[in-house]
Amino acid sequence: MADDMHDEQDERANGEGDRTPADELGALRAEVAELKDRLLRALADAENTRRRAERGRLDASQYAVTRFARDMLTIADNFGRALAACPPALLEAADPQLKAVIEGVEATERQLLSTLESYGVKQIDTSDGKFDPNLHQAIAEVPGEGKPPGSIVHVVQTGFKIGDRLLRPAMVTIARKDGGSSGSPANNNKE
Asked: Is the entire prediction scored with pTM above 0.85?
């Protein structure tokens, strides 16, 4: 019995003995609301973590071939150089065996570029002639050949993107303004 009296005194000292059922109900509702809020926040946090992990997985799979693709671009460049070294007039006069070799190199270059494209590696389009410092690296200013100043005159090296990221900028010469010095780099892209 002495223990019961001590428990009642402890409850009153803590203020719990004076609580009405309405107070207890209010306290329980507040606790339920707090726990519900915590649960919703934990679920939202788990969903955000899942989304970040999924995005990371997609990025890793899409961009995993980046280093390999850069290495393959040097091979594609060499195919292009080999084909450019044989002017069309010389090819027309060549014997059938040499023509077959050149056609084989052309077919291999097309297949390589097609395979790279199947992995998301695409050539940067420069056909519009507009210089974009996000995609192109100007290596020299040259006479415009009738093109407006700052536009692309010649593509020295093809640029490539992988997905939506720049893999290698296109190396280009751009039309200089009248009176500009020849061969000076303009708007170099420092990537």
From this structure: no
